[in-house]
Task: structure prediction
Amino acid sequence: MLIYFFIFISKIVEVSLTTVRTVLLTKGEKVYAAIIGFFEVIIWLLVVGNVLDGIQDDPIKIIVYALGYACGNYLGSIVEDKLAIGIITMNVIVKKEDGEEMLKVLRRAEVGVTSIEGEGLDSKKLILILHLKRKRKKEIIKLIESVDMKSVISITDTKTVYGGF
Result:
């Protein structure tokens, strides 16, 4: 029974590390990704060695391994979301007459904002472009929603931003 617990927990840890390592690589954090990869491989070798040892006589190890893998994916995505590594670009589209107020609110929150005039179906629009750390995403969305202006928000991951405000 102890071996099943070891396989399950170790696989969760290993797959969670894989998720975080993959995100770090896509964000350009090569050194941290390499360090995590080192520990990830050690755990993987230990787990696979235990799963393969006597697998013909104990196929339950396969189920426990697969369950650990599935739970590791889930937990890894939660951990990655909590770490919120990286930068996002947020585009906020508001009516032009509401735009100046929204600009003031965002700038008071120390957010760099660039505005561009646009045109919607039936009115002039202001497109506000914000680059910010992913950790601030929920805070800024709440701030925008608290202004009580009808707005459209789109968010994309951004690898690099040069310059700043």
Summary: Helices lie at 2-26, 30-52, 60-83, 96-108, 137-146.
